[in-house]
Amino acid sequence: GGLDFLVANASNGMLARLEDITPDDWEKAFRTNVLGLHKCAMQAAALMRRRGGGKIVTLSSPASHGYVEYFGCMGAVKAAVESLTRSLAIELAPDNIQVNCVSPGPTYGELLNKWPDSERLIAQWERKTAYSRLCEAHDVSHFIAYLLSEPVKMFNGSVLVMDGGISISSF
User: Partner of 37 at 20 to 30 A CA spacing, among 21, 78, 79, 84?
Assistant: First the structure.
């Protein structure tokens, strides 16, 4: 009869140079990442209101703020996710619904290994972190769990980058 949390992590886009991105690729990425987020957030908000509020966490990428090889399409789409997150945060705040965005950098796993020229890029990104390693899934999930926890009250509309310092040293 209600919902406490929504973690909006759906993503679908092309890892390619912009010259190789088709209009269909753009539409697929935008529909999944932005339109899908809007639809899920509206349905979640209706359920959360029944319980007196809730929390929504969206996922983005530091590539929404700068150039990352093969991520031009997704960087633009994730910038739209961040903008939508801020708007949702303001519009849903009167219903006691917090909306924040976690923006992890490159994260070890299946997707990272599908990246064109992944070995070179992973090594390059590892050198740019403060820890000589990239994010792991548990790093991201633990941070999201913290944002969803009861004591966290004053984050709303935030985009929280967790990339080990890569983005401050530039990609």
Answer: 21
* Amino acid in position 24: D
The pLDDT tens digits of the residues spanning 117-145 come to 889 999 999 999 999 999 999 999 999 99
Question: Strands 97-104 and 54-59, how do they pair?
Answer: parallel
- For residue 114, how many other CB atoms are within 10 A of its CB? 9
100: enclosing H helix or E strand:
strand 97-104
For 126-130, the CB contacts below 8 A with 24+ separation are 128/165, 128/166, 128/169, 128/170, 128/171, 129/105, 129/163, 129/164, 129/165, 129/166, 130/164, 130/165
